[in-house]
Amino acid sequence: MSGFFLSLIGVAVVVGLAVMYLNMRRNDHLGELLKKRAEGARVQSRASHVEANHFVPVALTLTQDSIYYENADLEASFDLNRIDEVEYDDELVTGKSVEGKCRALRLRSHGTAFEFVLQPGDCDKWMAALPPRRMGDHAQAM
User: Global pTM?
Assistant: First the structure.
């Protein structure tokens, strides 16, 4: 009986190590994506793209004319001239509070909201480079 439990513990340790390895590899890949877009970037950071209740880690980059969000499975971007509104909030569009002192960056394009959770230190950099603006607010050009 004790051999069974030792085997079970061994399997749990192997699974735990595999999960740790995959997380480290994902972080390495995000770092590579940030390096790839570093030239010409106004601001960059790691963030979480929010899809329903799923938080997907992404490399988030703002260039002169686009925002890129990428990971190993996703390569997407917005042209800045297609973004109607930019908001920073401590709640997601679902009403769920953002944990810690993180902030949500919400982009609206043609009635659809896209949200990214930024770490506290990154939010100020993003707000300086991409100020909040409402639809029809022509005073602040991106």
Answer: 0.73
